[in-house]
Amino acid sequence: MRSFILALTASLCLALPLQAQDAPPAPPAAESTISGLAGVIAGHADAIAKPSRQTIGPVIAAITATADPGVRDFLRSWTDRTLGQRKSDGAIFRIEKAGDGYRLADPLTGADAGTAARADISEIKPNAGVQGLIAGALVQFQLSDPDPAKRRAALDTLAREATAENLAPLRAAIDDEPDAAIKAQKQRVERLLTIRFGETPEERVDAIQSFGGDMGLDYRATLNPILAVARKAFAAAPEGNVARELKPGQGIDAEEAYALLVSAGLAPKRLTHAEQRAALEAHIADGAVGGIPVAELAEQSARDRAYTALEAAGQVPQAATDDEVSAAIAAHRYADIYAEPSEAVTEAAAAALKSVSLKVDAMYGLDLGLDALSLTSIYFLAAIGLAITFGVMRVINMAHGEFITMGAYTGYVVQSYISDYTTSIIVALPLAFAVTFLAGVAMERLVIRHLYKRPLETLLATFGISIALQQLFKNIFGTQARPLTAPSWLDGAWALNDIVSISYIRIAIFVLAMIFLGVFLFVMNRTRLGLEVRAVTQNPSMAASMGINPDRINMLCFGFGSGIAGIAGVAIGLFAKVTSELGSDYIVQSFMTVVVGGVGNIFGTLAGAALVGTLQKLIEAVNPSNTLAAQTYMILFIIIFIQFRPRGIIALKGRAAGD
How do 229-234 and 333-338 pair as beta strands? Predict the structure, then answer.
């Protein structure tokens, strides 16, 4: 019995190692005791501490896949750079500077975890690329954030940097969205992401077609990459989603075709004449190269045969001669291949872009028209005062631009004392008129009235005054641009869609120009002053015989025109830099507006402003990169126009017309 027990004990002892060998190894302590998000963080601590945009993606995906309630707070701490790694054991904590060290907290719960010396902690500072990936992962949590602003920000992030993983959380967040506007935005972004990341071509095509004739920039920006193509060469029939097949000389030249063959490994590198000559010279033997006498190598075809013989003998590297290049090009096929593999998706995208192209072109035309209308109102406002002085008095006032500058500086001075921008503009407009009116009257009394009927002397005198006023502005206000701030209700722009928009400041200038057109027409047609001005304009001698004082009318007209220039300066200063040269930027266009429209006629000035403004915008649209060339072309056109219609669009009879 005793021997039996000993034998049984021995057999059990021998069996134990065998059982231990068959059993699976025990997991490490860390992995067996830590699970969920904490386990992912512990298992990837080093990658989290030193993240790289190229390698951190799987780690972020593993963190979000845990669906742990602490994922959002951990990711926020990571992107806010408030995480640190303890050097002794590699553990990750939330950190906060406290004296000479750090206060530690659990990275998930925020529970206090003691303190550590500064030398024991390495701060985790992800770069901008990694922060972008983390922000993309945070989006799914922000889509359901109680704060509407954060939900909108999350949608903006998705519109810029979405991934396929964001589509499911976005769809889940749509039905429970309480805000109708945000819900509509979520639905739009969901359709855009479906176009890019939908699981099936049918789903993506349905998303494309759901937009109908939408002209949104985000929609078109989503469709355009689908139609991106890469040009490739093939030994047989083109493979993939073919956009169009090309033939040498029809859509692709020979050089590009052979370059595609070389890059695809379908043909050897092309042999240049210099390389061929050097190779042949290096292999001359017994008066021949490759069996071809040197005397025959004067012809290119003979040199090609000689190099081919050397290739066959393995004496030179493989390279293509001209004949071989031509043969290789003819033996292969070429095509533009869509990057998108689904033909149905590319067809739907192409059809959608084509359907909105006409609308987009029409919207661009409308936007160009609004820009031209805006520029027309600016030129009209700047030129209306010049039209009065030049039309009635026949005075070429080269200082008209400085009256515009004077009005802008008046607005700046008013805003220096009145901080409310709306009130300051209301005060600045009549004050600018008064200041420039008095300056114009003083200029007329002191200089202009002594130079009537002497246009050259008047031009030189006003040009000198222009230079003097510019220097005076520099002495008073300096050479730096001064701010003339528009009220807050003029901030932004009226946008019809992603294409058509116009700033509220330009709309206000257009309204101001129309107001002055109405005021001018009322004064000229409904007041005694207007009657006297029209009489002096038509026939000053007859007007004087009827008891009208032409000298007084000239003075008032010059002051009135200068006053309007001052108001124009306030308006222009709201969107342009207020400097001493502000007026000189508009003086040439103002003269062109008056001359082209018709001297002395307000509707002619309006027509001239419309022609000059529209023409400038059209030329800039054709040649947007060179504004100087656009101005040159515009001046040339106007010179030609004046040759055929020297009195302008609307000619005025009387003294202003030279009768």
Answer: antiparallel
